[in-house]
Design brief:
Keywords: Oxidoreductase. Its EC number is 1.1.1.304. It catalyses: (S)-acetoin + NAD(+) = diacetyl + NADH + H(+). It comes from Jeotgalicoccus saudimassiliensis. The chain has 8 helices and 7 strands. With about 260 residues, it is α/β, with parallel strands linked by helices. The chain has 2 domains: about 200 residues, Rossmann fold; about 35 residues, no CATH class. Strands 3-2-1-4-5-6-7 form a 7-stranded parallel beta sheet, sandwiched between helices. Helix 2 links the parallel strand 2 and strand 3. Helix 1 runs parallel beside helix 2, helix 3 runs parallel beside helix 4 and helix 4 packs parallel to helix 5. The termini are far apart.
Length: about 260
Amino acid sequence: MAKRFEDKVILMTGAASGLGQDAAVRVASEGAKLVLVDLNGEALKETEELIKKENSNAEVLTVTADVSDEEAVKNYVNKTVETFGKIDGFFNNAGIEGKQNLTEDYGSDEFQKVVNINLNGVFFGMKHVLKVMKEQGYGSIVNTASVGGIRGVGNQSGYSATKHGVVGLTRNSAVEYGQFGVNINAIAPGAIMTAMVKGSLKQMDPDNWEEAGKEFVSVNPMKRFGKPEEVSALVAFLLSEAGFINGAVINIDGGQSYKY
């Protein structure tokens, strides 16, 4: 039986942990050749080891890079093309939450840090990958937005502002590049149990973060956190079988966004 990603080259940022790591293992299991990007080179190796544990013949290139540095972004895109000759799909996923605080108390340096990674990093990735895909005449991009990109999230001005920006970039570029055979979509995860979400809960209540988590999911219609593998299934679909879905922002949050 043919695998969905057989002979496909998939580039992923934020691949050292969380949603990026899980998605990398998922698409590799379905035959993808992978280029994995993250600032944490050691953790990237752990992702590669997880992939090789499942498939010792998997082709994986790891690139340590700061996505907020445009030259570093150009480098990881160039390395992908030099190594594999093309880019079939791009999971533009790297991001941080930043510190939680009221807007009036939100540090300007912290705000800029979140903007540099979450918004500039996504823009730089799209800018340079789209050049490759336009020349190819095909390709799929999945950007990681958030439910915080479609509604307000208290105490997270930087995060919410940048994720709203990711939604805007997704929709705008989808209009521009559909004519070149490239479809561009975004996922909007809610509370998915990853290290980032644990960190967020610890900011809310350092001593009782697990109890804070229970209270957090109590308002979710499904009464639980999402699982990384549930997000990975959506990412894999959008990168492989969703050619006529373009400019969509797909919530994956257990229905929480529709409750209020």
